[in-house]
Automatic annotation (TrEMBL):
Residues 13-205 form the Ketoreductase domain. Transmembrane segments: none annotated. Keywords: Oxidoreductase. This is SDR family NAD(P)-dependent oxidoreductase.
């Protein structure tokens, strides 16, 4: 990972990341570890090798808890376990998501419920679980990952874009409700970040060229490009930002 800005208040902070063992999430875990944070993360697949590698490369060992975030009691249990290990969570990064492609006419009720459960329901209940500890700690920061997909009006995954839009609404409501407790809640909307999954499934040359043509900045986004904005939103450098949606997409969409 290239050098990033240092945020002294993240040193020793208790951080919880969903989906922190692969894709963008793995870079987020590494980014917080390099800040000196106490990082716990969940994921469905075993991440023992990643944990060992992070300890070797950063000198800071994360806590991995294997968990399917759609199992809300298991997610709540993981958050409790992280709290016992690292103290009250003061930074929550809701990163895990699934943008499985689908068309409207093929969606049945089971698929709809599955998509909402991973892409927005788990976010809400993770927020709910960390807020009492943040209150006790005197504040905290929640970063909810969304996407520019719904802003672009993209077809091909309507259940996913519905959840993305819902994340923004939830973010703004929680920011209003818990602002008096000094709990900040912001959304981060990446553009097309070329994770290995994206490269394997959808990033064919024509699609890449077409998307790059839409960007103002003519470089494809990599997972590391999302780390610094997340660190900023997590840290006191953004202490008066809440209820906002930060877009990091190379200049595809324009907001405001």
């Amino acid at each position: 990972m290239s050098a990033t800005a240092i945020y002294p208040d993240l040193d020793g902070a208790s951080v919880f990341i969903t989906g922190g063992g692969s894709g963008i999430g793995a870079d987020l875990t590494e980014g917080f570890l390099r800040q000196g944070a106490k990082v716990a993360f969940v994921g469905r697949s075993d991440a023992s090798d990643f944990v060992d590698r992070m300890e070797t490369e950063t000198g800071n060992r994360p806590l991995f808890i294997q968990c399917d975030i759609t199992d809300i009691p298991a997610l709540q249990s993981a958050i409790n376990q992280a709290t016992e290990a690292h103290g009250p969570i003061t930074v929550l990064v809701n990163n895990a998501a699934n943008d499985k492609r689908h068309s409207t006419l093929e969606v049945d009720e089971a698929f709809w419920d599955w998509s909402q459960s991973i892409n927005v329901k788990a976010y809400f209940f993770a927020c709910q679980a960390v807020i009492p500890g943040m209150k006790e700690a005197g504040g905290g920061s929640i970063v909810n990952f969304s996407s520019i997909s719904y802003m672009m009006g993209n077809a091909g995954y309507p259940a996913y874009t519905t959840a993305n839009s819902g994340i923004n609404g939830m973010t703004r409501s929680l920011a209003r409700e818990f602002g008096p407790d000094r709990i900040r809640v912001n959304a981060l909307a990446p553009g097309w970040v070329l994770t290995q999954k994206q490269l394997d499934l959808w990033a064919d040359p024509d699609s890449l060229a077409a998307h790059l043509d839409r960007q103002c900045l003519k470089d494809h986004l990599k997972p590391v490009d999302i780390v610094e904005p997340t660190l900023f939103l997590a840290s006191k450098a953004s202490r008066m930002m809440t209820g906002q949606a930060m877009v990091v997409d190379g200049g595809v969409v324009v907001t405001g």
